[in-house]
Specification:
This protein has helices at 2-21, 203-206; strands at residues 23-50, 59-86, 94-122, 127-130, 133-136, 142-144, 161-168, 172-179, 200-202, 222-227, 231-232, 237-246, 252-261, 270-276, 281-289, 298-307, 310-311, 317-323. By secondary structure, the protein is mostly beta strands. Strands 11, 13, 14, 16, 17 and 18 form a 6-stranded mixed β-sheet that branches.
Protein backbone atom coordinates (compact mmCIF):
# COMPACT_ATOMS: atom_id res chain seq x y z
CA UNK A 1 0.00 0.00 0.00
CA UNK A 2 2.80 2.40 0.86
CA UNK A 3 4.49 1.58 -2.39
CA UNK A 4 1.32 2.46 -4.30
CA UNK A 5 1.04 5.78 -2.46
CA UNK A 6 4.66 6.60 -3.22
CA UNK A 7 4.07 5.94 -6.91
CA UNK A 8 0.90 8.08 -6.96
CA UNK A 9 2.64 10.95 -5.16
CA UNK A 10 5.55 10.84 -7.55
CA UNK A 11 3.16 11.00 -10.51
CA UNK A 12 1.29 14.02 -9.11
CA UNK A 13 4.55 15.86 -8.47
CA UNK A 14 5.73 15.17 -12.00
CA UNK A 15 2.40 16.45 -13.44
CA UNK A 16 2.55 19.59 -11.30
CA UNK A 17 6.09 20.28 -12.44
CA UNK A 18 5.04 19.88 -16.09
CA UNK A 19 2.12 22.28 -15.67
CA UNK A 20 4.31 24.76 -13.82
CA UNK A 21 6.65 24.91 -16.77
CA UNK A 22 3.83 25.20 -19.36
CA UNK A 23 3.25 28.36 -21.36
CA UNK A 24 -0.13 30.08 -21.61
CA UNK A 25 -0.80 32.54 -24.51
CA UNK A 26 -3.12 35.55 -24.26
CA UNK A 27 -3.90 37.86 -27.20
CA UNK A 28 -4.63 41.54 -26.74
CA UNK A 29 -4.77 44.77 -28.72
CA UNK A 30 -1.56 46.71 -29.20
CA UNK A 31 -0.58 49.92 -30.96
CA UNK A 32 -3.04 51.58 -33.42
CA UNK A 33 -1.96 50.88 -37.00
CA UNK A 34 -4.63 52.20 -39.40
CA UNK A 35 -8.31 52.71 -40.10
CA UNK A 36 -9.71 50.36 -42.71
CA UNK A 37 -12.82 50.41 -44.89
CA UNK A 38 -14.98 47.49 -43.83
CA UNK A 39 -18.01 48.13 -46.05
CA UNK A 40 -19.32 50.82 -48.41
CA UNK A 41 -23.02 51.51 -49.00
CA UNK A 42 -24.49 53.81 -51.66
CA UNK A 43 -28.08 55.04 -51.51
CA UNK A 44 -29.69 57.09 -54.31
CA UNK A 45 -31.25 60.35 -53.16
CA UNK A 46 -32.13 63.85 -54.29
CA UNK A 47 -32.14 67.47 -53.15
CA UNK A 48 -34.92 69.97 -53.78
CA UNK A 49 -35.15 73.74 -53.36
CA UNK A 50 -36.07 77.00 -55.04
CA UNK A 51 -33.78 78.14 -57.84
CA UNK A 52 -32.72 81.74 -58.34
CA UNK A 53 -34.57 83.17 -61.31
CA UNK A 54 -36.31 86.34 -62.51
CA UNK A 55 -39.86 87.10 -63.50
CA UNK A 56 -43.10 85.96 -61.88
CA UNK A 57 -42.80 82.16 -61.92
CA UNK A 58 -41.01 80.34 -59.08
CA UNK A 59 -38.76 77.48 -60.16
CA UNK A 60 -38.21 74.29 -58.14
CA UNK A 61 -34.82 72.71 -58.80
CA UNK A 62 -33.90 69.06 -58.24
CA UNK A 63 -30.39 67.65 -57.90
CA UNK A 64 -29.52 63.97 -58.15
CA UNK A 65 -27.47 62.69 -55.23
CA UNK A 66 -25.81 59.59 -53.89
CA UNK A 67 -25.48 59.18 -50.13
CA UNK A 68 -22.29 57.22 -49.59
CA UNK A 69 -21.87 55.59 -46.19
CA UNK A 70 -18.45 54.22 -45.26
CA UNK A 71 -18.24 51.69 -42.44
CA UNK A 72 -14.78 52.04 -40.91
CA UNK A 73 -12.89 49.95 -38.37
CA UNK A 74 -9.72 50.81 -36.46
CA UNK A 75 -7.03 48.16 -36.68
CA UNK A 76 -4.41 47.50 -34.03
CA UNK A 77 -1.33 45.34 -33.66
CA UNK A 78 -2.01 41.92 -32.22
CA UNK A 79 0.04 41.35 -29.09
CA UNK A 80 0.45 37.88 -27.71
CA UNK A 81 1.42 37.64 -24.06
CA UNK A 82 3.18 34.41 -23.22
CA UNK A 83 2.85 33.62 -19.52
CA UNK A 84 5.33 31.04 -18.19
CA UNK A 85 5.40 29.58 -14.68
CA UNK A 86 9.09 29.55 -13.74
CA UNK A 87 10.35 27.25 -10.94
CA UNK A 88 14.04 27.65 -11.62
CA UNK A 89 14.58 30.32 -8.99
CA UNK A 90 13.35 28.59 -5.91
CA UNK A 91 10.56 26.51 -4.48
CA UNK A 92 7.86 29.19 -5.31
CA UNK A 93 6.53 29.30 -8.85
CA UNK A 94 6.62 32.76 -10.47
CA UNK A 95 4.74 33.87 -13.62
CA UNK A 96 6.88 35.43 -16.33
CA UNK A 97 5.00 37.40 -19.11
CA UNK A 98 6.66 38.07 -22.43
CA UNK A 99 4.60 40.33 -24.82
CA UNK A 100 5.30 39.80 -28.51
CA UNK A 101 3.89 41.38 -31.68
CA UNK A 102 2.35 38.83 -34.02
CA UNK A 103 3.74 39.60 -37.49
CA UNK A 104 1.11 40.27 -40.16
CA UNK A 105 -1.85 39.92 -37.80
CA UNK A 106 -4.10 42.87 -36.90
CA UNK A 107 -6.90 43.07 -34.36
CA UNK A 108 -10.17 44.97 -35.04
CA UNK A 109 -11.20 47.71 -32.63
CA UNK A 110 -13.75 50.52 -32.61
CA UNK A 111 -16.17 50.85 -35.53
CA UNK A 112 -17.62 54.04 -36.97
CA UNK A 113 -19.51 55.32 -40.01
CA UNK A 114 -18.87 58.30 -42.27
CA UNK A 115 -21.54 59.65 -44.60
CA UNK A 116 -20.98 61.87 -47.60
CA UNK A 117 -23.47 63.38 -50.05
CA UNK A 118 -22.22 63.19 -53.62
CA UNK A 119 -23.87 65.62 -56.02
CA UNK A 120 -24.50 64.15 -59.45
CA UNK A 121 -25.94 67.16 -61.21
CA UNK A 122 -29.47 68.15 -62.26
CA UNK A 123 -32.11 65.44 -61.86
CA UNK A 124 -33.43 65.62 -65.43
CA UNK A 125 -36.61 64.08 -66.84
CA UNK A 126 -37.73 62.60 -63.53
CA UNK A 127 -41.25 62.60 -62.07
CA UNK A 128 -41.92 63.91 -58.58
CA UNK A 129 -45.18 64.49 -56.74
CA UNK A 130 -45.23 68.06 -55.41
CA UNK A 131 -48.02 68.67 -52.91
CA UNK A 132 -50.10 65.96 -54.55
CA UNK A 133 -49.45 66.96 -58.17
CA UNK A 134 -47.20 64.92 -60.45
CA UNK A 135 -44.53 67.03 -62.14
CA UNK A 136 -41.68 66.03 -64.44
CA UNK A 137 -38.39 67.90 -64.43
CA UNK A 138 -36.92 69.35 -67.63
CA UNK A 139 -33.43 68.65 -68.98
CA UNK A 140 -32.00 70.99 -66.33
CA UNK A 141 -33.77 69.27 -63.45
CA UNK A 142 -36.27 72.11 -63.01
CA UNK A 143 -40.02 72.38 -62.54
CA UNK A 144 -41.38 75.81 -63.43
CA UNK A 145 -44.35 76.78 -61.26
CA UNK A 146 -46.33 77.93 -64.31
CA UNK A 147 -49.60 78.17 -62.36
CA UNK A 148 -47.99 80.00 -59.42
CA UNK A 149 -49.17 77.47 -56.86
CA UNK A 150 -46.29 78.46 -54.59
CA UNK A 151 -47.45 82.08 -54.60
CA UNK A 152 -51.13 81.37 -53.98
CA UNK A 153 -50.93 80.76 -50.18
CA UNK A 154 -49.25 84.14 -49.72
CA UNK A 155 -52.23 86.04 -51.13
CA UNK A 156 -53.32 85.98 -47.50
CA UNK A 157 -51.23 88.71 -45.90
CA UNK A 158 -50.97 86.90 -42.57
CA UNK A 159 -49.57 83.80 -44.25
CA UNK A 160 -45.76 84.03 -44.31
CA UNK A 161 -44.64 80.41 -44.65
CA UNK A 162 -45.78 77.28 -46.40
CA UNK A 163 -44.55 73.70 -46.10
CA UNK A 164 -44.11 71.82 -49.38
CA UNK A 165 -44.05 68.01 -49.55
CA UNK A 166 -42.14 66.33 -52.37
CA UNK A 167 -42.35 62.58 -53.01
CA UNK A 168 -40.36 60.34 -55.33
CA UNK A 169 -41.72 56.83 -55.95
CA UNK A 170 -38.42 55.11 -55.14
CA UNK A 171 -36.48 57.63 -53.06
CA UNK A 172 -39.16 58.75 -50.68
CA UNK A 173 -40.33 62.03 -49.24
CA UNK A 174 -38.67 65.36 -48.57
CA UNK A 175 -40.07 68.61 -47.23
CA UNK A 176 -39.05 72.22 -47.65
CA UNK A 177 -40.45 75.47 -46.30
CA UNK A 178 -41.30 78.40 -48.57
CA UNK A 179 -41.31 81.78 -46.82
CA UNK A 180 -42.29 85.32 -47.81
CA UNK A 181 -40.60 88.30 -46.11
CA UNK A 182 -42.01 91.67 -47.15
CA UNK A 183 -39.88 93.67 -44.71
CA UNK A 184 -36.41 92.18 -44.68
CA UNK A 185 -33.95 93.73 -42.24
CA UNK A 186 -30.89 95.43 -43.78
CA UNK A 187 -28.51 93.07 -42.01
CA UNK A 188 -29.11 89.57 -40.78
CA UNK A 189 -27.04 87.40 -38.48
CA UNK A 190 -26.42 83.93 -39.79
CA UNK A 191 -27.42 81.41 -37.15
CA UNK A 192 -26.49 77.76 -37.01
CA UNK A 193 -29.30 75.60 -38.35
CA UNK A 194 -30.17 72.40 -36.52
CA UNK A 195 -30.11 69.19 -38.54
CA UNK A 196 -33.81 68.51 -37.95
CA UNK A 197 -34.92 71.93 -39.26
CA UNK A 198 -36.42 71.87 -42.75
CA UNK A 199 -34.61 73.82 -45.49
CA UNK A 200 -36.29 77.21 -46.01
CA UNK A 201 -36.39 79.40 -49.14
CA UNK A 202 -37.74 82.92 -49.50
CA UNK A 203 -39.95 82.95 -52.60
CA UNK A 204 -39.36 86.67 -53.24
CA UNK A 205 -35.58 86.28 -53.07
CA UNK A 206 -35.80 83.33 -55.46
CA UNK A 207 -37.50 85.66 -57.97
CA UNK A 208 -34.65 88.14 -57.69
CA UNK A 209 -36.74 90.69 -55.75
CA UNK A 210 -35.21 92.86 -53.04
CA UNK A 211 -37.54 93.64 -50.14
CA UNK A 212 -34.80 94.90 -47.82
CA UNK A 213 -35.89 97.92 -45.79
CA UNK A 214 -34.18 101.05 -47.14
CA UNK A 215 -33.03 103.97 -45.00
CA UNK A 216 -33.94 106.52 -47.68
CA UNK A 217 -37.29 106.19 -49.42
CA UNK A 218 -39.47 108.19 -51.76
CA UNK A 219 -42.92 107.73 -53.22
CA UNK A 220 -43.07 110.33 -55.98
CA UNK A 221 -42.49 109.46 -59.59
CA UNK A 222 -43.98 105.96 -59.52
CA UNK A 223 -45.80 105.21 -62.77
CA UNK A 224 -48.05 102.12 -62.93
CA UNK A 225 -49.64 100.55 -66.00
CA UNK A 226 -52.03 97.59 -66.09
CA UNK A 227 -52.81 94.88 -68.62
CA UNK A 228 -56.20 93.54 -67.53
CA UNK A 229 -58.40 91.53 -69.90
CA UNK A 230 -61.61 93.35 -70.83
CA UNK A 231 -63.59 90.14 -71.28
CA UNK A 232 -63.19 86.51 -70.25
CA UNK A 233 -65.05 83.22 -70.54
CA UNK A 234 -65.73 80.47 -68.02
CA UNK A 235 -62.87 78.04 -67.47
CA UNK A 236 -60.35 80.32 -69.15
CA UNK A 237 -56.96 80.98 -67.58
CA UNK A 238 -56.17 84.68 -67.80
CA UNK A 239 -53.11 86.73 -66.98
CA UNK A 240 -52.92 90.16 -65.40
CA UNK A 241 -49.65 92.05 -65.79
CA UNK A 242 -48.62 95.17 -63.92
CA UNK A 243 -45.66 97.27 -65.06
CA UNK A 244 -44.11 99.96 -62.88
CA UNK A 245 -41.37 102.53 -63.36
CA UNK A 246 -39.67 104.93 -60.94
CA UNK A 247 -39.33 108.36 -62.56
CA UNK A 248 -38.47 110.01 -59.26
CA UNK A 249 -35.14 110.91 -57.69
CA UNK A 250 -35.32 108.57 -54.68
CA UNK A 251 -35.68 104.78 -54.47
CA UNK A 252 -39.17 103.52 -53.70
CA UNK A 253 -38.96 100.73 -51.18
CA UNK A 254 -40.79 97.39 -50.97
CA UNK A 255 -43.40 98.09 -53.62
CA UNK A 256 -46.32 95.69 -53.85
CA UNK A 257 -49.80 95.86 -55.36
CA UNK A 258 -52.86 93.91 -54.24
CA UNK A 259 -56.12 93.21 -56.04
CA UNK A 260 -59.49 93.68 -54.31
CA UNK A 261 -62.70 92.21 -55.67
CA UNK A 262 -65.92 90.51 -54.68
CA UNK A 263 -64.87 87.73 -57.01
CA UNK A 264 -62.71 85.14 -55.20
CA UNK A 265 -60.75 84.33 -58.37
CA UNK A 266 -59.49 87.93 -58.44
CA UNK A 267 -59.48 89.00 -54.82
CA UNK A 268 -56.21 89.13 -52.91
CA UNK A 269 -53.86 88.56 -55.84
CA UNK A 270 -50.46 89.97 -54.85
CA UNK A 271 -48.03 91.56 -57.32
CA UNK A 272 -44.47 91.90 -56.00
CA UNK A 273 -41.84 94.44 -57.07
CA UNK A 274 -39.61 95.20 -54.06
CA UNK A 275 -37.18 98.10 -54.10
CA UNK A 276 -37.24 100.17 -57.29
CA UNK A 277 -34.28 102.50 -57.82
CA UNK A 278 -34.66 105.80 -59.72
CA UNK A 279 -34.91 105.13 -63.44
CA UNK A 280 -35.67 101.42 -62.98
CA UNK A 281 -38.64 99.42 -64.25
CA UNK A 282 -40.25 96.17 -63.11
CA UNK A 283 -43.06 93.88 -64.16
CA UNK A 284 -45.09 91.16 -62.45
CA UNK A 285 -47.77 88.83 -63.82
CA UNK A 286 -50.38 86.77 -61.98
CA UNK A 287 -52.56 84.02 -63.37
CA UNK A 288 -56.24 83.48 -62.56
CA UNK A 289 -58.79 80.87 -63.59
CA UNK A 290 -62.27 82.17 -64.46
CA UNK A 291 -64.94 80.13 -62.65
CA UNK A 292 -68.05 78.75 -64.31
CA UNK A 293 -70.51 81.15 -62.70
CA UNK A 294 -73.33 82.10 -65.06
CA UNK A 295 -74.82 84.53 -62.54
CA UNK A 296 -71.84 86.88 -62.90
CA UNK A 297 -71.82 88.98 -66.04
CA UNK A 298 -69.37 91.67 -64.91
CA UNK A 299 -66.49 91.42 -62.43
CA UNK A 300 -65.03 94.50 -60.78
CA UNK A 301 -61.48 94.64 -59.46
CA UNK A 302 -59.39 97.38 -57.83
CA UNK A 303 -55.60 97.46 -57.52
CA UNK A 304 -54.04 99.25 -54.52
CA UNK A 305 -50.33 100.06 -54.16
CA UNK A 306 -48.20 99.92 -51.02
CA UNK A 307 -44.58 100.77 -50.38
CA UNK A 308 -42.41 101.28 -47.33
CA UNK A 309 -44.15 104.61 -46.65
CA UNK A 310 -47.56 102.95 -46.54
CA UNK A 311 -50.61 102.74 -48.76
CA UNK A 312 -50.84 105.25 -51.62
CA UNK A 313 -54.62 105.69 -52.20
CA UNK A 314 -54.09 108.01 -55.15
CA UNK A 315 -52.50 105.13 -57.05
CA UNK A 316 -55.58 102.87 -56.77
CA UNK A 317 -57.11 101.91 -60.12
CA UNK A 318 -60.30 99.99 -60.89
CA UNK A 319 -61.31 97.82 -63.83
CA UNK A 320 -64.34 95.83 -64.93
CA UNK A 321 -64.16 92.50 -66.72
CA UNK A 322 -67.16 91.19 -68.66
CA UNK A 323 -68.08 87.59 -69.47
CA UNK A 324 -68.16 86.49 -73.08
Amino acid sequence: MKTYLHILLAGLLAFAATQASAQTKFKRRGRFVEEQLEKKEETPSYAVGLEQTTGSLPVIAFRKQTIQTLHMVKMYETIVEIATLDDTKGPVYRERVEPQVVPGELMAGERSTKSEVIDQGPFANETFRIDGIDCTTDKDGRVVDAHQRLLAPFDQLAHNSSEITVIHAAMGEKKIVITRDLLKKPTSIQKAVAEDVLPAYDVLESLGLDFTQLRQNGKDGLVISYKVPESVKAGETVKITIDIANHGTLPIGTVLIRAFSREPWLNGKMFYFGNIAPGKKASFTREAVVPDDKRTEVSHVAFAEWNLLGNQPEKTQTFKITRK
